[in-house]
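Milestone 3.1: sequence recovery, worked example.
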């Protein structure tokens, strides 16, 4: 019996020693910074969530400033719950309104998509969860002032990110009497549709425009989180020419 006990003690000691050596290695996953220090990147949730690090996080794509898209991205840390809630609200509102008619331009409402813009590079680490590779955004290492939420026509999101990274692009607030709402195209539809959605989402504001130097226009709305650094750059102009 003594030998059996000693044998067990030895095994336990060996296993414990191995864990002490192994655990720090498991937690030292190298963090990479992707994107541009002076650019804008965007996380686009796809409606899936995953249990990571003891809590539920949203999953989606990360669009970089140069147009590259990274799939299977997990947003971990600050605003994870807000992103899940915002996305669920957008999905619910799409189910309620898409297909109905815009009273101003008589066009049908279109599916909108939420996305979350990050000013500067994004800290990302590659991990394996349930046998699948994911890229985890360490959101707690991002300045809250550099994160802002938006929603627009789902087909515009990649182009929207490109527009934000285009020199000379500016944002504008659409006046209530603007003819933009009467435009019989997606720009006019989304301009009013974002105003409709804002009434259902706390802290939301619709009826904004992103204007490129070539006068290409994207209408959109914004909601939590409302990063002050992004708003200083993009949200100081009131539309007077539309």
């Amino acid at each position: 019996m003594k030998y059996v006990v000693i044998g067990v003690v030895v095994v336990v000691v060996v296993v414990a020693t191995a864990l002490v050596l192994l655990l720090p290695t498991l937690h030292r996953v190298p963090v990479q910074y992707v994107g541009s220090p002076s650019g804008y990147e965007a996380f686009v949730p796809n409606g899936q969530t995953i249990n990571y690090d003891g809590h539920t996080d949203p999953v989606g794509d990360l669009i970089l400033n140069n147009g590259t898209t990274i799939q299977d991205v997990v947003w971990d840390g600050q605003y994870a719950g807000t992103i899940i809630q915002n996305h669920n609200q957008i999905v619910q509102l799409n189910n309620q309104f898409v297909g109905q008619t815009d009273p101003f331009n008589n066009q049908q409402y279109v599916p909108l998509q939420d996305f979350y813009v990050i000013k500067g590079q994004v800290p990302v680490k590659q991990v394996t969860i349930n046998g699948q590779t994911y890229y985890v955004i360490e959101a707690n290492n991002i300045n809250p002032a550099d994160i802002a939420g938006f929603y627009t026509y789902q087909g515009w999101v990649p182009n929207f990110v490109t527009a934000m990274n285009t020199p000379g692009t500016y944002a504008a607030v659409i006046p209530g009497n603007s003819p933009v709402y009467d435009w019989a195209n997606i720009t006019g539809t989304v301009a009013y549709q974002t105003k409709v959605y804002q009434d259902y989402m706390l802290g939301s504001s619709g009826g904004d425009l992103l204007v490129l130097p070539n006068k290409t226009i994207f209408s959109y709305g914004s909601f939590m989180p409302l990063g002050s650094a992004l708003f200083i750059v993009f949200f100081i102009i009131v539309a007077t020419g539309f």
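Confidence is low (pLDDT under 50) at residues 1-27, 236-240. Helices lie at 2-27, 80-97, 157-164, 186-198, 228-234.
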